[in-house]
Design goal:
Blueprint (H helix, E strand, L loop, with lengths): L9 E4 L3 H12 L4 E5 L14 E2 L12 H10 L5 E3 L4 H13 L3 H15 L2 H9 L8 E10 L10 H8 L4 E4 L1 H7 L9 E11 L2 H14 L3 E4 L2 E6 L5 E5 L2 E5 L1 E4 L5 H5 L9 E11 L8 E4 L4 E6 L2 E10 L8 H14 L7 E11 L6 E4 L6 E5 L5 H16 L20
Parallel strand pairs: 1-2, 1-12, 2-8, 4-16, 5-14, 12-19
Antiparallel strand pairs: 3-7, 5-7, 6-7, 9-10, 10-11, 13-16, 13-17, 14-15, 15-16, 18-19
Helix pairs in contact: 1-8, 1-11, 4-11, 5-11
Length: 420
């Protein structure tokens, strides 16, 4: 094992897509790096997503008018959002901040920050996969935003404006073109907005495994520990208290997803990071196929064909970090998937659940934590972790290598929420 107290070494806490991409970029620049995760790297939320990789992930979760739709979503048993009653007092301040971020002016500001993190994501993933033998895990794709009502399928709204500003080609197609593009889709869907120039992972889990294998092959170290606490060391470094051992680090990148705020709280840093649970269902031997990633725009869930079948993923469940999965949410997705794909074979079905780390402004924390030298944050990427991980990793490597990144980091500061 390399010595853990060298000045140059960086310790990355968290082995999701963001942590892996950060570690890969560091190793590629000759910086000694070790990655610590309690599980196999990349097999948490980074594995369980819908596999959409878009350079045009520039539309925030909170948009103008969402406040009108939210009550209906919460009351609808098939709706995309649920909040557990016991969590409601803690959730309300976050929800109010979420709504305040939904003004047109604020949305445009946030979108610029999202674009800086999603731009070039497909190309960077391909660079990471080059020479691994797993290049086919990334497939060119469109994003099909399917509508039942043709009148709602428009490319003139603020969302399309933001995507076009980011360089996307956006197109509206009618019923016949949609049938040709996705013949197994329910005829209930009569139009779609198509976002071109994207990609999809045919197995997000294997994609993460390929990145972890490449990290090892380039000299990176991967350790399996559950991190319990961070404490400033007496020599300016950090003590990483793990289950059964304590490690020392000179420089840390905290990329522990929804658990990041919990690790920072004992240091006096209180960040409004919500644990947003999502679910996916994998239908093996589905009997139908999707040629692209498809979103049901009414129900806000996404389905995509993968190596092991069709995956349907979605819902936003707010119940706190320790709330166990609710099997009823998986049943909702199963029902919606059958509605989207009438020929879907549901005999062989597996379910998964994981937690997204979400701030109310749809932006992560990136950069050195104020008041804590040598402690850097790279967490809180919400629904966009898979898309934003490559660029985030590159930014973090620049910072830790002493090269100012060509990105304005002020939108991602940890103290943007007030005093931390």
């Amino acid at each position: 094992m390399p010595p853990d107290d060298t000045d140059s070494q960086v310790t990355v806490l968290g082995g999701g897509a963001v942590g892996l991409c950060t570690a890969l970029e560091l190793a590629g620049r000759g910086i000694p790096v070790r990655l610590i995760d309690r599980d196999t790297p990349g097999q948490g939320a980074s594995m369980g997503n819908a596999g959409v990789i878009s350079p045009f992930s520039v539309v925030p979760q909170s948009m103008p008018g969402v406040w009108k739709k939210a009550p209906g979503w919460l009351l609808d048993p098939l709706g995309p959002v649920t909040v557990h009653a016991r969590h409601l007092p803690r959730f309300l301040p976050w929800a109010l901040s979420f709504l305040r971020n939904g003004t047109s002016e604020r949305v445009r500001q946030i979108s610029l920050g999202m674009h800086a993190l999603s731009d070039g994501s497909v190309d960077i993933y391909r660079q990471h996969l080059a020479g691994t033998g797993h290049e086919a895990l990334l497939q060119d794709s469109c994003y099909v935003l399917a509508h039942r009502n043709p009148d709602t399928a428009r490319d003139t709204g603020l969302d399309s404006e933001l995507r076009r500003a980011a360089g996307a080609r956006v197109e509206v197609i009618g019923d016949a073109a949609l049938r040709e593009m996705e013949p197994d889709l329910s005829p209930e869907f009569r139009a779609a907005v198509i976002i071109h120039g994207q990609a999809r992972a045919t197995s997000p889990g294997r994609l993460m495994q390929a990145l972890a294998d490449k990290l090892r092959s380039t000299g990176g170290e991967i350790l399996k520990h559950e991190v319990k606490a961070l404490r400033p060391g007496t020599d300016g470094g950090w003590q990483i208290e793990c289950a059964g051992t304590t490690l020392h680090a000179r420089r840390i990148v905290l990329s522990a997803g929804a658990w990041s705020a919990r690790l920072l709280k004992p240091l006096g840093l209180k960040l409004p990071l919500e644990a947003e649970r999502g679910y996916h269902l994998m239908f093996a031997d589905p009997g139908v196929r999707l040629n692209n990633s498809v979103m049901d725009t009414d129900r806000k869930f996404v389905a995509s064909s993968m190596e092991d079948g069709i995956r349907a993923a979605g819902t936003a469940e707010f119940g706190g970090l320790d709330k166990p999965p609710d099997p009823r949410r998986a049943e909702v997705i199963a029902k919606l998937a059958r509605q989207m794909l009438p020929g879907l074979n549901t005999a062989a079905l597996t379910t998964w659940s994981g937690i997204r780390p979400s701030f109310a402004d749809s932006l992560p924390v990136i950069g050195e934590i104020p008041g804590h030298p040598s402690l850097y944050g790279a967490f809180g990427h919400s629904h966009y972790g898979l898309m934003m991980a490559p660029r985030t990793g590159r930014i973090m490597a620049d910072l830790l290598n002493g090269a100012p990144p060509n990105v304005d980091l002020s939108p991602y500061r940890a103290d943007r929420f007030g005093s931390v």
